[in-house]
Amino acid sequence: MNTGTKVTTHDIDIELPSNPITPMFAVLIDMVGGAGTAEAIWRLMQDFAKRGIEADRKRRRLKERAQLDAEWFSLRQMKEAYEADRKRRDDLEAQLEKALTERDDYHDMADRLAEQIAAITDQEIGEHGSGNNPWQNAMLAADEWIAKDIRRLTDGVDRRSDGEPDAVAACHAVRPYIDSIVCYASTLDEHDGNRVAKMIEDVCASHPQPAEPTRDSLPRHVAQTLDQLPKLEVPLFRSGAVYICRTVEQWTQAHEALGAEPKMMGRAGAANTFRHLSGGQDVYLLGIFDGRSSTLAHEAAHIVFDICHSVGVEVEGGKANEPFCYLLDAIVGFADQILNEPTGVAQAEIGRAMP
């Protein structure tokens, strides 16, 4: 009979206890149960012990597996967090790269704009350096250039106590836009733009602008017809109003109300001016019959030339011609809104007239 058994589990040798069945007791068991009964019992005891050890081994393996699963889950979470962080980092890098590219593009554009201003104004702006900013120099040169143009428009009002009528009108026309026209002057007291702005304020204060004509100054039958058309008070000069005709029928009705024979009926668009109506108001009819932007721009230019001529503003080649440009911008912008609205929309729904 065996006296002991050695079993290995988890790399540890475990020795089972010696057979507790004494030889004499084994003889008695064999006598009762038959030969070999004691040996069989001992083997069962050994098998039970081995099974217990194997069960413990499986339990330990399951515990280790659970620990491994927990560690794997934690690692997977860390990986997902890392991937998300890497994506955010890549997005930030892409945004930064885009911002840097846009900055470089804007820088190049500002350089080109400054160079063009320098060429137009015939001023030296220099290169970028610690003591020189060509962009600022270009802004100053542009302000000086614009100030000279404004002085040309207002020539005479600072030398005559009574003021030239056309120059006074020009001062009142430029006054609402002086801050945007002379963009850099507000920071430099000695800059000519500030001197021009102060002169304009003084002239406007000493020569108040006459009250603008009202709709009541038009004959009633004319006002009733024109009330059906979108209206824009002439920007800058307030010398009249522009009325938009989108159809030939509107064009015809407006001419009949004004006592004129409608012409240019077969064209894509038309423009006509009626000067010095009752109350001194000019009426400008702008017809865009095909709804095209090119037609609008073409006919609006005719209207703007008429307005400039009416108020004494000369349009010259090689000059900035800012009044002409502002008028054209305002009229085209207003009429473009009308063209994009359904026919028949009330004037109040189309939008307010520009100042």
Description:
This protein has 355 residues and is an alpha+beta fold. It folds into three domains: 1-120; 134-206, no CATH class; 215-350, no CATH class. 57% of the residues lie in helices and 9% in strands. The protein has a four-stranded mixed sheet with strand order 3-4-6-5. A two-stranded antiparallel ribbon has the order 1-2. It is elongated and about 150 Å long. The N and C termini lie far apart (120 Å). Residues 1-16, 158-163, 212-216 and 344-355 have low confidence and may be disordered.
In short:
The protein has helices at 23-33, 37-121, 134-153, 165-174, 178-181, 192-206, 220-226, 248-257, 293-311, 322-339, 347-350; strands spanning 5-9, 12-16, 231-233, 240-245, 269-274, 282-288.
Task: Tell how many strands the DSSP assignment holds.
Answer: 6
Give the mean pLDDT: 76
Write down the overall geometry. elongated
Termini Cα gap: 120 Å
String of helices and strands: EEHHHHHHHEEHEEHHH
Largest sheet: 4 strands, mixed
Query: What structural category do the secondary elements indicate?
Result: alpha+beta
- Give, in spatial order, the strands making up the sheet with the most strands: 3-4-6-5
Q: Which range best describes the helical content: under 10%, 10-25%, 25-40%, 40-55%, 55-70% or over 70%?
A: 55-70%
Number of helices: 11
Radius of gyration of CA atoms, rounded to a whole number = 48 Å
Count of the separate structural domains: 3
Q: Strand portion, in percent?
A: 5-15%
Which stretches are poorly predicted, pLDDT < 50 over at least 5 residues?
A: 1-16, 158-163, 212-216, 344-355
